[in-house]
Write a structure and sequence with these properties.
The complex is a heterodimer of chains A (about 375) and B (about 350). Chain A is α+β, with helices and mostly antiparallel strands and about 375 residues long. Chain A has twelve helices and ten strands. In chain B, about 40% of the residues lie in helices and about 25% in strands. In chain B, helix 2 packs antiparallel against helix 3. The chains are: A alpha+beta (about 375), B alpha+beta (about 350).
């Protein structure tokens, strides 16, 4: 019965391809939009993810996400180091400030001050090495940031920018994940950062630390026992993610995903039912010949499954290809398809196919022998 | 089955294989990595963390000068060990030496004046003797005239003249005696002038002595920012030009946040970690608490201080010998064992 079903599909090439393409299109739309949404919101945690050494983040309770952070008291670091369960803790400075490039362009940049003693929060490098930032007056910019600061030029050592009347030389290009704000990410040492933001009373934006206990439990303890708020690395990423999610950003993506689902479901179901109706005479003959409803159900299920698998595979392939192609755009280089998105999309497609097969089966059961004689 | 029928499934298989590899490859990695330099880890069950600054056991001594002037010679270099009262540097004293020569001349002059006055006394005394002898002579002549009653031998006129001569000579005697007294007081005055001149000489000598700055105690020269020809002010300077300190034992001044100060016990164990290599650590021995809680000063070396909170300073003695070469002024990360009774 299965091979018969698949043969039937092949004989009606137009509907067969139409259904596969509908599923493929829906899969592509869903996966593509969901990945962009996840990657886009995930950028709110880019800089958290980039501090690969720390699994604990401590901040002022007013800090809602990475991009909107209020600095801590300078002595907070020592207090945090004294909290039981913390292996180590170092400060991380994050400040958004205006920078002027050597050709006069004005840009807001995100300045990250890496702890110079222990080099925690140092970026992965694309061009050059991270070491020069521990000398005064040197900085590293991310590749997207270079594009924003010096558009149309390739990296040349020695270009400089001015922040608060102090010149910084760009000594390398980092692989820093693109931030949600889209601003250039500048890595400097904590000392340089403090000099650049001279005049601010508080300089420590975050304290990042490591614990060998469960970071979620410890962060809850810290939030309870001190005046600060603590998150695990993942927890803070989720917090930043949720903060932006609450700002209405995802709505546009949800709409596209819904369109993908609806179009996929409607088009596939419609085509499948047309297919069954056109083959009604044949199917009735089978029934007359003694093929049971169970056998027919298997046949329909095989057809639906085949269409779904082909469509899903093609859709996923296209989505992967498109994603890989557009990651060369600097701003979108953090884009990827999370495996959860693929799983969810497959589940949706399976649901659509199952529903379609069920509707088809209902039609089949209602077929009467007289249909054979219908012209 | 025709090849054409297999086209779509093959395409789908190819597509899913490509998608799988691509998705697996691009999944972000979230694993934790170890920092290039491991930061210090607390060594006790309950800790109070602090930042410490290494200082000499005597605390740094910024040498001051009693007088301002231009440096003539510097006798020490950085790192020298000096004994108490050992000369460190000498200011230019040429003008003081000139003043000393003047003072010496004044002494000589005053001493000469004493001699002059003393010879005046001798002269005056001699004159008194001459006047006394003259008086005796005229007295004898008067006495003779008085004893001869006969007015034919000695006229009244003669007698009166002799009386007058005696009176004159008596006055001359008194005058000469007064001269002696005057000369004696001149001697006293001249002697006082000598004392004054010597005192003046001493003043200059003291100034010269003060031009050589000596070590106040056995110590090491930690910093030398003065060279011959440079000017030293007697006022306090924010940048000391010569710093001494006792470095046989080193102390660590740990700043503890006032919010954490209550957790510290005086005899609690403490460890200090060397920055840059947290594996190098030194046991600390409690010395004292600084009685005054002060506003925290940022130790970033920045000229603008940031006062953010107040800190209790705890002084510890570093283990001797130190685990690594430690330098005065270096910062260390300190962990102090605290009570388990945290809030």
């Amino acid at each position: 019965m299965i091979s018969l079903g698949l043969q039937l599909l092949r004989y009606d090439r137009a509907k067969y391809i139409a259904m596969v393409m509908a599923i493929a299109l829906a899969s592509f739309l869903i996966q593509n939009q969901a990945s962009i949404l996840v990657a886009f919101l995930g950028m709110s945690g880019s800089q958290i993810k980039d501090v690969r050494e720390a699994n604990l983040w401590i901040m002022e309770p007013d800090t809602e996400c990475f991009d909107q952070a209020k600095p801590l008291r300078d002595t907070a670091l020592q207090t945090v180091r004294g909290i039981p369960g913390i292996d180590w803790a170092v400060p991380l400075i994050k400040v958004d400030t205006n920078a002027r490039t050597d050709d006069g362009k004005l840009r807001t940049v995100t300045l990250l001050g890496v702890d110079g003693t222990n080099r925690i929060g140092e970026p992965r490098m694309c061009i050059g090495s991270a070491s020069p930032i521990y000398l005064k007056g040197n900085a590293i910019v991310d590749s997207g940031g270079w594009e924003l600061l010096f558009p149309g030029t390739s990296y040349t050592p020695g270009r400089s920018i001015r922040i608060h009347d102090q010149w910084l030389t760009i000594t390398g290009i980092s692989n820093a994940s693109p931030p949600f704000t889209g601003l250039p990410v500048l890595h400097v040492s904590d000392r340089t950062a403090k000099e650049l933001i001279r005049g601010e009373t508080r300089t420590t934006t975050f304290i990042v630390g490591r614990t060998s206990q469960d970071p979620d439990d410890l962060s809850q303890y810290i939030s309870r026992a001190t005046n600060w708020r603590a998150y695990s690395r993942e927890g803070f990423q989720t917090q930043s993610y949720t903060f932006y999610e609450g700002q209405g950003v995802p709505m546009i993506f949800y709409i596209t995903i819904a369109i993908g689902l609806t179009v996929g479901a409607a088009f596939t179901a419609q085509t499948f039912i047309m297919f069954i109706k056109e083959n009604a005479r044949g199917i009735t003959m089978l029934k007359v010949l003694g093929v049971t409803h169970g056998q027919l159900a298997v046949m329909l299920a095989a057809q639906a499954l085949m269409v779904m698998l082909l469509g899903l595979s093609l859709g996923t392939g296209i989505a992967a290809f498109v994603t890989e192609s557009i990651t060369s755009i600097p701003f979108l280089r953090g884009l990827y398809i999370p495996w959860q998105v693929v799983a969810l999309c497959s589940a949706f497609m399976a649901l659509i196919s199952a529903v379609t097969a069920a509707i088809g089966f209902r039609h089949v059961t209602q077929l009467q022998p007289v249909t054979v004689f219908r012209s | 089955m025709k090849i054409r029928d297999l086209l779509l499934p093959l395409l789908a298989i190819g597509s899913i294989v490509y998608a799988t590899t691509s998705i697996v490859r691009t999944q972000p990695t979230r694993e934790l990595t170890d920092p290039p330099n491991a930061p210090p880890r607390p060594g006790y069950a309950h800790n109070v963390a602090a930042v410490g600054l290494i200082e000499p056991s005597s605390e740094p001594i910024s040498i001051g000068s009693a007088r301002a002037g231009v440096v003539d010679q510097v006798f020490v270099t950085v790192g020298d060990t000096v004994k108490k009262n050992q000369p460190l540097l000498k200011l230019r004293t040429s003008e003081l030496e000139a003043e000393l020569a003047v003072a010496n001349a004044a002494i000589t002059q005053a001493e000469a004046a004493v001699e002059v006055a003393q010879s005046q006394v001798t002269i005056s005394t001699a004159q008194v003797k001459i006047a006394s002898a003259e008086l005796a002579n005229v007295q004898r002549l008067l006495d003779f005239a008085e004893s001869v009653k006969d007015s034919r031998v000695i006229s009244d006129e003669e007698r009166t003249q002799r009386k007058m001569a005696v009176l004159t000579q008596q006055a001359k005697c008194q005058s000469a005696e007064a001269s002696v007294a005057s000369a004696i007081s001149s001697v006293a005055s001249a002697k006082a002038a000598v004392v004054a001149a010597k005192a003046q000489q001493r003043v200059t000598q003291v100034e010269i002595e003060r031009s050589t700055i000596t070590a106040p105690l056995d110590s090491t020269v930690l910093q030398l920012r003065i060279r011959p020809g440079e000017y030293v002010s007697s006022a306090t300077s924010s940048t000391p030009w010569l710093t001494l300190g006792q470095t046989q034992t080193l102390h660590l001044r740990a700043d503890v946040d006032e919010h954490e100060a209550w957790r510290i016990k005086s005899q609690a164990e403490a460890t200090a970690h060397v920055r840059g290599n947290a594996d190098l650590k030194s046991q600390l021995t409690f010395v004292r608490f600084e009685p005054l809680v002060i506003p925290k000063k940022s130790l970033t070396g920045d000229a603008t201080e940031r006062v953010d909170t107040r800190v209790l300073q705890v002084i510890y003695r570093l283990q001797n010998p130190a685990p690594a070469s430690l330098f005065i002024g270096q910062q260390m990360d300190v962990f102090i064992a605290a009570d388990s009774s945290t809030k």
